[in-house]
Amino acid sequence: MVLLALAGPAYRVGVPLPAAFTLLRWGAYVGLTGALASALVAVYHGARKTRGPMYLAAAGLVLGLVVALIPYRLQRQAQAVPPIHDISTDLENPPTFVAVVPLRADAPNSLDRPTAVTEQQRKGYPDLAPLTLGIPTTAAFPRALTVARQMGWEIVVADEASGRIEATDTTRWFGFKDDVVVRVMPWGAGSRVDVRSVSRVGRSDIGTNARRIRAFLAAVQS
Q: Which domains does the chain have, with CATH numbers?
């Protein structure tokens, strides 16, 4: 549990990402080892009918399995989604960043979007699409900005004239910074909302950017 708990704070204070992930991996190993040892102890005391130590060992078994399960689930999530970190509702003309660009000067991940990323997103997230609203942009833009603030994003710029919102969202545990751009533009008699979310670090986002976009669009639509 200590190893798992330290992984996020360690990265926040400057420990390299691979080393922080190593803490997760070793946390899983130690948890699994503890679970196996606790199982043997529980069986031993169960045979001797010493209930106190048996219950304590059973608790250790459960705790060890829980600790091992957390990194395992993260790994499974990573395997279930495309190994990409740039997600957009518009694959042909993704919203572009302007104000956020200087903030990403030292970010390992570029804002360039290769064709391969588009193809991987199309296969992995076929449900992601622009949101159309039956209201003009003068009403849609304030609604989108309100939702962005309610979701806890740090607003970098909100330019209603161009229909562009740029913001940064920070994940809770590791403190990863992901940048988001929202584009609101006229669409027929109403408006269209596109969103792009890009992680600053990490080859894969484990589905975080797609979940963020879905939550944002659902809140704007409601």
A: 2-80 (no CATH), 86-221 (3.30.530.50)
